[in-house]
Amino acid sequence: MKKYIALVLAAVLVLGIFTGCGNKGNKETESQTDEKATESVNSAENNTEDSTQSSTENSTENQNVADTEQLTTENGQESSVLACPSVNGKLHVEGSKLVDQNNNEVQLRGVSTHGLAWYPQYVTNDCFATLKSFGANVVRLAMYTYESGGYCTDGDRQQLETLVQNGVQYALNNDMYVIIDWHVLNEGNPNRYSDVAKTFFVKMAQQYASYNNVIYEICNEPCKGATWGDVKFYASEVIPSIRSYDKDAVILIGTPNWSQDVDEAVKDPVTGYDNIMYTLHFYAATHKEDLQNKLKSAADAGLPIFVSEFGICSADGNGQVDIDSANSWISLLDSYGISYVCWNLSNKDEKSALLTPACDKTSGFTYEDLSDEGKWLYGVLTSHVTQVLN
Question: pTM above 0.85?
Fold first, then answer.
């Protein structure tokens, strides 16, 4: 992949063509016991993946390890093939758009982990490097809160925090953005554990305020009758915990009905804070024209939208993949410059997993290791890199 990109980039430069970088529905009805991971991140893996400097030095000096091909825009500003922290810096929101430190529009495209407690083996530097080579520039760290192994129930909080911390650093090492996802799901109402959420996000914001690659997602999928009023109240409690330390990082807020009702946020948005975006989730075999129209209406009304989770199968994570619907969704998101993150990085025996059940690798995935969704996503990510270079 890197050789291919380098060859195309060389051709672009020879021609003198310069360009800037650019511009679950109710899926997770998992049982609370069937997803215990059989592996955990071992210390040997972590020790072999040290960055060349301390995390603080990396965050403040932008000394990222990953190689990133760079271009020059017509106005002389440095840009890159993919939006990346070392070039685009800390992101913020202008109007309805996600933009970089120079106010250029940015679209993030990437991958979400499955539950960190269940599939910790993919939180490695080499794994994230593989995702970067596919054309991903963001990784979402999905930390369940309620289910078995959840942060607020019987999970090992220290281990989960370590996985998040490692994930943030591995993303930075590979010049990628990262989403810290408080993965509200089967508890329904995010207010159930709001006190724990506030403490967690204080800890995260204290640690990552100086980082330029961190995005906070404060509630994955409010559901089971949770209203937009419930979510707004929760946001009013949690956002100050972040803003007390990280004054300007992007914060993603889930919307009711498994993050589908963005229209509720249009009518009554969160006020008093900058750099807020609202999440919409879809699964292409279930969610089609109706939800697409809801997204279009909200985006046209000026709502900043971020698709922090989607899949190309049914909303339960299985069923058949729907390539036509998935392509329609991607075309729509690209037309609005909306960022999107695909669920999920695991070899779980379900349609929404990016790897086949037979794949026991944690990095260096080949095309044959990828599931139908994984192969489709690989095509989407790589094609976007090619389009930018061309």
Answer: no
